[in-house]
Amino acid sequence: MKSEALQFDQKIQLITVSFDGIIKETDNNLFDWKKGSSIYGIHPFFEILTHLQDDQDTKEFSFPCIHFENNGSENICDVSVKIDLSEIAIVFFDYTNKYNELNQSAQQRNESILISKELELKNKFLLEKEEFKNNFIANINHEIRTPLTSILGFVEVLEKTKLSFDQEELTRIIKRDSQHLHALIDDMVDISKIESGKLKIVEERFVFKDLIEGLNEAYAIIAEEKNISFETHIDPNIQEYILGDRMRVYQILNNLLNNAFKFTEEGKISLVITKNYQRTNKLSINFKIEDTGMGILEEHLDHIFDRFARFTENKQISGTGLGLAIVKNLVDKLNGEIKVSSEPEKGTTFNIKLPFKFEITKPAPERKKKKYFLPDTKKKFRILLVEDEETTQYLVMKILISHGSFYVDLAINGEEAIKCIERRNYDLVLMDLRMSKVDGYQATHMIRNNYGDEVISGVPIIGFTSNTQESERDKCLRSGMDDFITKPFKREDLIYIITKQIAKKAAD
């Protein structure tokens, strides 16, 4: 107990001072100040004593956190001053450690606040950067798809005319490179969806063999053109109908096969599909794509799935470097695995394992695409095309008029479209979504809600846009449109969707 009291006493020092500042008594527990010396010379703080003596009302004062030098070190003290009739009593309470701890805590708190603020700003920057990137890609997607629609559309029209051999060859090149550009745009949109977490995995029932045969037919033609061998083999034990995301599986295999054909000039390419295991209604399938192409250096294999990774100096081999990055992300999304092995000048092998489900009971046959026919009438059907791009206007009009069953009127925005339908009855409206003044959504809403005339309010409306996102289709249908077609489109797809809506309206 005595030891504890001594420790406590060592943190306090008491001195008495005369009114003229001479130290009369001191215990020197904290500071070695001599009796008889002037306190005013010790520290500037004590100059305050001359003013405190003039205060007739208050005789006791407290001053926190005063810094004093002591043999090269610094003490932080709270100081109490009491003035009586004969002298001034001053008490020093040494709180150096406590103030240092508080200061450290405050500093840590400030640093924590700064770090939190920095993370908040970084997160805000990343969100703004992501939003800018997505908006940029969406705008680029729209701006490129619009002229690309015209290029591919007019090539299809041109193919149906009488062409010389040279003209057919030039048309084929234009079509091939336009389709390649279309694929690059799709890659950019897909990687953006994947990175933003907007890519949805859809489980559907499909005929597995049909998926592979579709790939086989497409790449057999390319193999013949390049004079290389292409073989596919499917394990006969794999169920006919399986459950999974058909589109994403197709995308994975298509990207890998496209890559194999791109880097293989001679030899062969093979796609071998085998069953890994089957448990209850779960199924694991292995896809092996092997080529005899230029191969990949070992030091590049770790980066093969990086975005924009390109490991060839051959400028004749085009691409964005996004294909394999998309493949890896899609495989991960499907809870699968992908491995790659390669040897320069000998070829590359990709092995992908993907999980699926299958139905134990035999499902009903797949529904085929329903056929529709225009109503049997001698009159032509009148279409209102609402589109502000001149080349797209000309393309659609060329396709529809050459078909022989349609008249086409033109409006360049929603406002003009409203005026047109008020003057004339239409069998169908092709409505672009992005237009000045009144856009496609607004125009559709007005047509559906502002007219009591069923001929006007019930006219079939097909949304017409370069935005390929599923949300855009949903938005079109919610706004009152009957269907949706994306740019670029094939001639037969446009005719089919128009025929379908006119036939359905006539059947009502």
Automatic annotation (TrEMBL):
This is histidine kinase. Keywords: Kinase, Phosphoprotein, Transferase, Two-component regulatory system. The modification 4-aspartylphosphate is found at residue 432. GO terms for molecular function: phosphorelay sensor kinase activity. Its EC number is 2.7.13.3. Residues 382-502 form the Response regulatory domain. It is an enzyme of class 2 (transferase). Signal peptide: none annotated. Residues 139-358 form the Histidine kinase domain. It catalyses: ATP + protein L-histidine = ADP + protein N-phospho-L-histidine. Gene3D superfamilies: 1.10.287.130, 3.40.50.2300, Histidine kinase-like ATPase, C-terminal domain (3.30.565.10). It comes from the Bacteria. PROSITE patterns: HIS_KIN, RESPONSE_REGULATORY. The keyword Transferase applies. It comes from Aquimarina mytili. Pfam families: HATPase_c, HisKA, Response_reg. CDD domains: HisKA, REC_hyHK_CKI1_RcsC-like.
